[in-house]
Amino acid sequence: MKNYLKSQRGVAFIIAISVLLLVLLIGLVSLKTSTTDQSISSNTQRSTRASYAAEAGVMLGRQTIWNSYVNAVLTSPPKSAGSTGDINAFQTYLASIGLSNGACIKVNANHTVGGSAKVDSVKVSRRDKPGNVTELEIVSFGSEADGINSKIGAVYTVTGVPFRGFDYALLSNQVNCIMCHATFDNADRFWNKDASKNGSFDRIKIASLQNLMVRVGSSDSKVYGTLYSRGIVTDNSGNPLSSISTSTISGMKLDGSNGHIVEPLVSTALSNTTGSPLSQYGNLYMNYPTDEADMTDGYLPDQFPPAIPDLNGNKLVDDNEFDQIKNQVTGTISGGVIYGVSSGSFSGSALPSTGNLSSISRTYDGNLILVGTPILLPISDRVG
């Protein structure tokens, strides 16, 4: 009996030791797991700080470029400190700091952003696109003290304010001789041969923003749509007109619900639309509002931007204004007959049958006579 009890105590001792070892093993595993989790958490935090540093570098690069540009003073094109200028001024400034088209510069380096995280470097690259658009790619490298690194990039597109007047067939600051003998029509309607489409064609919209001159008595102009004017309206002698009923400019009847050209065509006088608010789809608006809230017949810009911007406001194309646009030209003219007149005037009495130039790259200082269809642009310069 005693031997049996001793045997039982021995078994119990072994079981107790086994349980103790198992508990110790579980404790060690838990300790290791906890240590590993802490290590992973610490690495994640350091990686996150490096990423935040890289993100901060992108913002730092953007602010460095833009703030320094806004504070810059330019003479050509003119821009005062504190103004945003225009896209041409911005491109000129970028070139002045070494960031020409296709170039890459470093704008920041070794910038501490908090704790042990820092911005190692920020690089900016420039790419110009057709349509006077500039893309800036900012690449930032951030790091943590123990060597964890992060890289983040962002692309910013800079362009001029979009022009909203492209729904006008003719838009000009001043219109004079054009209104003597001219017809303004929808080309799709003019060439349409499908009678089922009659009445589905949009009207033509033409506008003069500063001065409209019309001929009275002997003109023969037709407007298949709506004529807008702002500023002064005069006859061909320069006398102000309160209406153009005395002119021989005629319009076509428009659908009052959608402005489409009514077909079969019904010729009608241009009659000034009045009232407050102005009704839509009239065929004439004299002194059309400048407040967009009152432009009930559609948006009409305040001004038509010239092909060569008048940067100093003197209403002349100055040499520096012309050169600024000229230097952006990258196209090539080739084929057909290209005859250049670098000085004086062309002495021939008929168009030249042979050219004195085989091709022109970028610009030509003089006048050109182009016969045939010689204008060919490289694919990279074509828009759309």
Word description of this protein:
With 384 residues, the chain is an alpha/beta fold. It contains 4 helices and 18 strands. The strands form 5 sheets. Strands 7, 9, 11, 12 and 15 form a 5-stranded parallel β-sheet that branches. Strands 3-4-5-6 form a 4-stranded antiparallel β-sheet. A 4-stranded mixed β-sheet has the order 8-10-13-14, with no helix packed on it. The longest helix is centred in the first third of the chain and has 70 residues. The chain is elongated. It starts with a helix and ends in a 13-residue tail after the last strand. The C terminus is likely disordered.
List keywords for this structure.
single chain; 384 residues; alpha/beta; 5-stranded parallel beta sheet; 4-stranded antiparallel beta sheet; disordered C terminus
**Judging from the principal axes of the Cα atoms, what is the shape?**
elongated
Report helical residue fraction: 10-25%
From the alpha-carbon coordinates, what is the Rg to the nearest angstrom? 37 Å
Calculate the mean pLDDT score and round it.
83
**Number of alpha- plus pi-helical segments:** 4
Instruction: Point out poorly predicted stretches.
Output: 377-384
Q: Beta-sheet strand percentage? A: 25-35%
Structure summary, number of beta strands: 18
Structural class: alpha/beta
The span between the termini is 105 Å
Strand count, sense and barrel status of the largest sheet are: 5 strands, parallel
Task: Return the string of H and E elements.
Answer: HEEHEEEEEEHEEEEEEEHEEE
